[in-house]
Structure formats: structure tokens, C-alpha cells
Amino acid sequence: MSDINIVIEDREGNALDHVAPTDMGLSLMEFLKASEYDVLATCGGMALCATCCVDVLEGEEKLNEMSDDEYAMLDTLPDLLPNSRLACQIQLSPAMEGLKVRLHAEQ
């Protein structure tokens, strides 16, 4: 199966189920933008701006290990949570079935 079900909660607390393809090499950030969520992604997915930050509500153990670059960028956020990640650094994969994320509060 190449599609996974993920739940995305916007900044107003509205959660929607989505079916996301895993066979196109998309990052979570690209999927969020394609789904018309309000994600700036100013740096275009290079882990340089943190404007695509999400808080992982369920399925954090399914994600790839955080890179040093991602950690350093997240560390600049004043309201960083232990479950915050950069959506641009999360490649969608079949292992992420059931992932639930919330868009991080605007900076």
C-alpha cells in the first residue's frame, strides 16, 4: 500500500483525516502545502527557518531520527515542545500510518 492515513490539526484545533501518498517522495511539509494548510516554509524545506514546525501528537516513534540541523533550528524557537519537529525533515513513509500532527503556533 502506498497511501497512509494521517490526521492534521490546524492552529484552531480542527482535526481532519487525510490520505497521503508515500510513493512520491513527499515531505510532510510538501503534503501540508499541497493540502492548503497555512505553512510558510520560507526556506523551501532546507531546515533553515522553522516555519513548517509541527507538534507530533501521535506516532512520534514512527519518525526518522532528528538530524543535528533540525535540532539546531528547532532550538531557536521560544515555544519549542518536546514533540516539535520540522515538517520539511519528515519524509512520508508507509511506517507513518496513523500519524497525528498539529501545526505549531505561529511565531
From TrEMBL:
<dbReference type="GO" id="GO:0046872">
    <property type="term" value="F:metal ion binding"/>
</dbReference>
<dbReference type="Pfam" id="PF00111">
    <property type="entry name" value="Fer2"/>
</dbReference>
<keyword id="KW-0408">Iron</keyword>
<dbReference type="InterPro" id="IPR001055">
    <property type="entry name" value="Adrenodoxin-like"/>
</dbReference>
<dbReference type="GO" id="GO:0140647">
    <property type="term" value="P:P450-containing electron transport chain"/>
</dbReference>
<keyword id="KW-0411">Iron-sulfur</keyword>
<dbReference type="InterPro" id="IPR036010">
    <property type="entry name" value="2Fe-2S_ferredoxin-like_sf"/>
</dbReference>
<dbReference type="GO" id="GO:0051537">
    <property type="term" value="F:2 iron, 2 sulfur cluster binding"/>
</dbReference>
<dbReference type="InterPro" id="IPR012675">
    <property type="entry name" value="Beta-grasp_dom_sf"/>
</dbReference>
<keyword id="KW-0001">2Fe-2S</keyword>
<protein>
    <submittedName>
        <fullName>Ferredoxin, 2Fe-2S</fullName>
    </submittedName>
</protein>
<comment type="similarity">
    <text>Belongs to the adrenodoxin/putidaredoxin family.</text>
</comment>
<keyword id="KW-0479">Metal-binding</keyword>
<dbReference type="InterPro" id="IPR001041">
    <property type="entry name" value="2Fe-2S_ferredoxin-type"/>
</dbReference>
<dbReference type="GO" id="GO:0009055">
    <property type="term" value="F:electron transfer activity"/>
</dbReference>
<dbReference type="GO" id="GO:0005829">
    <property type="term" value="C:cytosol"/>
</dbReference>
<feature type="domain" description="2Fe-2S ferredoxin-type">
    <location>
        <begin position="2"/>
        <end position="107"/>
    </location>
</feature>
